[in-house]
Structure formats: structure tokens, C-alpha cells
TrEMBL record:
Signal peptide: none annotated. The chain crosses the membrane at residues 12-36, 48-70, 76-94. Keywords: Membrane, Transmembrane, Transmembrane helix. It comes from Metapseudomonas boanensis. InterPro entries: PhaG_MnhG_YufB. It comes from the Bacteria. This is Na+/H+ antiporter subunit G.
């Protein structure tokens, strides 16, 4: 069984989604490295990286729908689990950090445990 060649516009869409996803993951990793305290660092992997991985999964979905045997539920399930588990894990990490009263950077406004 040989693979069918993909149309140019599909290749462009897949390439753009992969580049966009890679940029989001890079921005998320950079934010995780550069932001000063835990509460700010939590945004890097939960927001930007989730969008990046989601974009890559959509690129995979488009590619395998065009070249493969049709729609695969694997990519949809990966996206579903990713978008459900990332906010839940971020909430649990933030709740644990509030209970531990982790130190804040001087630029951080407010104290989450004083509300």
C-alpha cells in the first residue's frame, strides 16, 4: 500500500501548524525558565505548552486524515486528555503551593494565601 502524495495546500497547513506549535512550546519553556516565582512559572507549561502540543496534534490529525485511511480518534483523544488534564494539574499544583506558602518574587502583587 503506497502513500498518496499530499496537496501543496495541505503541506502548507501542516507545516504552519507544526511551526506554530513549536513556537508555543518554545515560549512556554522559555517562560518556565525565566519567570521569577512558582506562581508565574506555572503559566508557561499550562498555557503556552498546551496550545503548542494541541497545535501539533491538530497537524497530525490533518496529515493522517489527508494521507491515511481517514479520521483517527487517537489525535482527538490526545487533545481531549491534554485539555482536561493540564488545567486540573495546574490547579492542584497551585493549591499545594498556596498551602506551602511558597516564596513570591518582589514584583508579584498580592499574596494568594491572604484572601
Amino acid at each position: 500500500m503506497s502513500a498518496q502524495p499530499m496537496a501543496l495546500w495541505l503541506e502548507i497547513i501542516v507545516s504552519l501548524l507544526l511551526i506554530l506549535g513549536s513556537l508555543f512550546v518554545l515560549i512556554g519553556a522559555f517562560g518556565l525558565y525565566r519567570l521569577p516565582d512558582f506562581f508565574m512559572r506555572l503559566h508557561g507549561p499550562t498555557k503556552a505548552t498546551t496550545l503548542g502540543v494541541g497545535s501539533m496534534v491538530v497537524a497530525s490529525l490533518v496529515f493522517f486524515c489527508a494521507v491515511g485511511d481517514g479520521l483517527s480518534l487517537h489525535e482527538l483523544l490526545i487533545s481531549l486528555f491534554l485539555f482536561i488534564s493540564a488545567p486540573v494539574s495546574a490547579y492542584m499544583l497551585a493549591k499545594a503551593a498556596v498551602q506551602q506558602r511558597l516564596p513570591l518574587a518582589p514584583k508579584t502583587r498580592g499574596k494568594p494565601w491572604e484572601q
